[in-house]
Amino acid sequence: MNAADPVPGPRTTSDPVPLLRAEGLVKTHYGEGAPAHAVRGVDLAVRKGEFVAVTGPSGAGKSTLLHLLGGLQRPDAGSIWLDGECADGYGEARWAVERRRRIGIVFQFFNLVSNLSVADNVELPALLAGVSPRQARAERELLLDELGLEDKERSMPGELSGGEQQRVALARALVNHPPLLLADEPAGSLDSKGTREVTRLLSRFHQRGQTIVLVTHDARLASAADRVISFFDGRIADDAELGGAPSRAPGISGVLELKD
Ligand SMILES: Nc1ncnc2c1ncn2[C@@H]1O[C@H](COP(=O)(O)OP(=O)(O)OP(=O)(O)O)[C@@H](O)[C@H]1O
User: What pTM value is reported for the model?
Assistant: First the structure.
């Protein structure tokens, strides 16, 4: 090793490589009517441990942005990096692998497999990721305990309340310990009690270091985040750290340093 080379060592929270980075993202949907310019040039960097809420009016392009970040849709232009690795060359299969290993996703309508029990719903992504059945069971037990669902393991999703189903969806998304959790209106179909539950759980996972990008209309849910991005007409209109930090210039999204 050359004396000038940096000393190798573990990454720290001040590491400049963001967990997620997007540059110049553009996505237009072509449907029945006029083309919808959903995402019109988004630059974004999310550091490890951040909890970022993306808010904005209906049709602003928030869900499209989240779908691009999770590889569920492909951008027309722009690039995404996962932990410093460019995802431009990823095909469907590779993104599916990343969604099992590195990216957990929670949607508004839970996306549970209706004919599998709660336990099987949570274990399935772990088994698909190649974890042993024993380990998958242990992870499932731990998470369902944590989420207060230990007595619902044998239930079918249709027998649960909306809030309980969303907790199962959260367990499913987190069972493989993904560094990044993407959540698209996770409380969108819940009543205020369910919304409080989801808010509390996201905050708790965040406090333990989980990186979260959350799309929501709900101000209470957004206030659990430590950074709020206002999305308008396919662009970032404002990007602010909660707690009084000055907001950023429209259209520019910087990298925030992690708090200790
Ligand atoms: N698959 C699609 N085909 C055609 N148009 C689409 C498609 N998905 C989204 N759109 C359009 O793209 C625009 C952005 O939609 P998107 O769902 O990303 O917005 P949003 O901010 O998440 O809205 P909401 O808060 O209502 O969910 C809208 O005009 C929408 O109608």
Answer: 0.86
